[in-house]
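INTERNAL AUDIT FORM
Audit reference: QA-55
Scope: verify that the stored structure record matches its stored sequence.
Auditor: D.O.
Record contents follow.
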Amino acid sequence: MSTPAGGWARHRHPDGGTILLPPGVPPPWEHEHEPDTLVFPGPRGADGAAGAAGVAGVTGPWIEYPHEHEPDTLVFPGPRGADGAAGAAGAAGIAGATGPWIEYPHEHEPDTLVFPGPRGADGAQGASGSVGAAGPALYTEFPHEHDEPITKAPGPQSYDGSYDRWMRVKYIPTDTGEANQNPPPNETIHTKSVDNIFQALTVLMTTSSLKIGLYLAEYFVLWQSSAVGNGISFSLNFTGTAAPIVSNRHYGSTGAAAATGVADGVAAVLTGSLVEHDASRVNAGALGPNTGVDTINADILDYVRALFEVTVVGNLQFRGTSEAAVDVRVQNHTMLRLTRYA
């Protein structure tokens, strides 16, 4: 046996003739089956086709929403386009064909032997589809001719039962202010912020927007007169409708056994002094005047109160007037405690 170039071997048949075979391939006459025939497989199978590309995403549509203030229309974009679907898997590679039977008589010496390649590989998976285009961004805000902030006040505080209701209090630090608007029972504390010096009828304090309901008003009035023989008168005027409305005024006087009408800011005797009063049962009814004071420009404390039921919303005015053409002063520590019961 000789060895040609390239590693192929030449094998000689016992009966004569030779055959050229690749390294390691025995001659057919050494095989137990069909020593007279060589079987060769067919060619290598072709690669499978590539998978199809994914479907591209769809751009979101624009959607129009009619607005309550036509002819303007607000236009909002549709949703973002969906991503493309993944590419389909590549088709399987074509299987290698079975080689034909080829007979070589031993007396012939073929110059070339052809052996089959491996089975064709499956086609690669198709590429992923492209990502869908993003839909237009949604509007987060837009100008409008009616664009102004709206503030919602919190609802009223709830309470349990009719015997454990707790009072809600509002404080007004100026001569004019709105009464407590919470459901009853509630209370408004209203204090004067400036002194008033006057002779003619003057509105000293205004508590506005009294809602329908039952009220008790209590004024603690700090006042002075510039003359011993000059007093003061008070009145409560309600600008809505209230019925009934009754009021009275109390002050300490110099009287010991009989009323004098002279307000007294000091009473320290063992037997005490009289508390005198003025009263009214009509709206804006006068409470006074009294006839004077014990000392000029000295502090006097009066207590004025009224009970009334509001049936039409209005403002409560506390007013004063001098007895004569002489200055009187109502001071800034004067205060109102207004209680709404129902």
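Auditor finding: record pair retrieved intact. The chain has no helices and 21 strands.
Action required: none
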